[in-house]
Amino acid sequence: MSDVTRTKNGRPVHHWRRDLVELAALFTAVAVADAVANLIGHGPDGPALLVISAVVLIATAGFHTWWARRHNHAPPTADDTDARPAGHPTEHSAGATALWRMRTTVRDEPGSLAALCTALAHGRVDILSLQAHPLAEGTVDEFLLRAPEELSATEITRGVSHAGGSGTWIERADAHDLVDAPTRILGLATRTALDAAELPLALRQLLGRCTIRSLPATSRDAAAMSRDSAAPATDATADGAPVEGVLDGTVLRLRAPEGEVITVERPYLPFTPTEFARARALVELDTRLGPRIPRSQDVLTLAEGNSITVRRADTADVEAAKAMHDRCSGRTLSMRYHGPVRDADRYLNHLLSPRFGRTLAVQTASGRIVGVGHLLWDGDETEIALLVEDEWQRRGIGTELLGRLVALAVEAGCESVYAVTQASNTGMVAAMRGLGLPLDYQIEEGTLVITARLDATPVVSRPPYDQPQDVSLEPQRAE
User: Fold this and answer.
1) Is residue 138 classed as helix, strand or coil in its secondary structure?
2) Where are the beta strands (DSSP E) in 268-354?
């Protein structure tokens, strides 16, 4: 161990024997140099021999320097830094970089992962995290990478393929992916424990880009009854799932508490048993905790002085919502449901379930619900729907609900929201325009679909409903 690495109390340790050896070598060199100088200097060709010796020494030093650089024994020059593996501070690695999420399958044999890491290092790619998903025929390795900005996804996957990786999938990542997997999973479990409506969002963040749908138990049973009785018995449960769930390539089917089936699908990448176990654990947590939503609320004051309360709603508010339906006119219900409304209880049980989205309710001081707004998880899209009782329209309630629902969608990480209404519903169109977001319009047979992109400047922030607040509403024509 050298005197640089051997320390005592933070200071290098020098041994007296080394100093003595160095001093003896110095005296010996001086004595030899004096003897050579006396021997050559007093001869007839002494000065010429000294000059020739100096030239030979200089040439030898130059040759040694060239030989050392050629065989990488000398300190690296600016031209050599490009060949350094990722992780070394070079001119390129200190520049702009990009984050990537990559998944690839390697053979389950010694050295396969090392070859893959070596290929990434040759491309100056830094491995920030690695998760291994063992399979019967190999191992799926999931990487979080930091690569030079100029390095494209194609170049990365080409290098991985040459190193033995197969079925490679890659996409851009962001700073949120820097959180390690256990911490991210615990955070998703906490969100799910606090709010049942978070389960679909937690599954989407856990499993990446995927489509999530919920099939109610009643719909599944009705579909099974309507099938041909001659069909095989296994077909009757094709849309269902046992309690332990089903893993089928790119599709997961998980049984939720009320008997409905949650289907998770991504067309580009098969799920691994590890991902299936994580998703099933989240669903089991949700099942054990039962129905739950945050019970906080906001108190708002209308322009005429009436106070209303905005809060989260769930299936416990079905009867109050049905009573509001009975007080609404046929035109108002037609604007909301795009036609005659029958079996309102069946609609409301679905709309108010936290499993399918989030619902905000507006109630008066007497506790009567006069307006509801729904944020519905529709696969990989998000729908917004509003209904305000006739006597409470034109007071800004719809605009307030819409702004809060869009804020919830932004918080949930949704890229866009859409509203389906009739082309004659000018109030809904005006409310969507009031968000200040880019809008897309599609009209077909009198039905208007308005899509707001949420990746632009966000809407004006709304007060959160985690503590009572008193906010005044100016009169607006939103319904």
Assistant:
1) coil
2) 297-301, 307-313
Q: Angle formed by the axes of helices 16-41 and 46-70, to 10°?
A: 140
Torsion of CA 191, 197, 198, 202, to 10 degrees: 140
**Each residue of 370-417: pLDDT tens digit?**
999 999 887 667 899 999 999 998 888 988 999 999 988 888 778 889
Q: What is the model's pLDDT at position 261? A: 84
On whether both 328 and 465 belong to a single domain, the answer is yes
Note whether 186 and 45 are same-domain residues: no
pLDDT at res. 41: 64
Q: What is the pTM of this model?
A: 0.56
Counted residue by residue, the chain has a size of 479
Token pair 């851009």 in the structure block, residue = 172
1, part of any domain: no
Gap between the Cα atoms of 476 and 9, Å rounded: 74
Shared domain check, 208 and 124 = no
Nearest to 151 by CA among 86, 246, 207, 224: 86
Closest CA to 160 of 126, 111, 117, 130: 117
Whether residue 140 is contained in a domain is answered as yes
79 secondary structure, DSSP code: T
User: Per residue in 40-94, pLDDT tens?
Assistant: 666 666 667 767 777 777 888 777 777 666 654 444 444 444 444 444 444 444 5
List the beta bridge partners of residue 172. Answer: 100
| CB neighbours of residue 333 within 10 Å | 17
Calculate the CA 100 to chain-centre distance: 11
Instruction: Please count the structural domains in the chain.
Output: 4
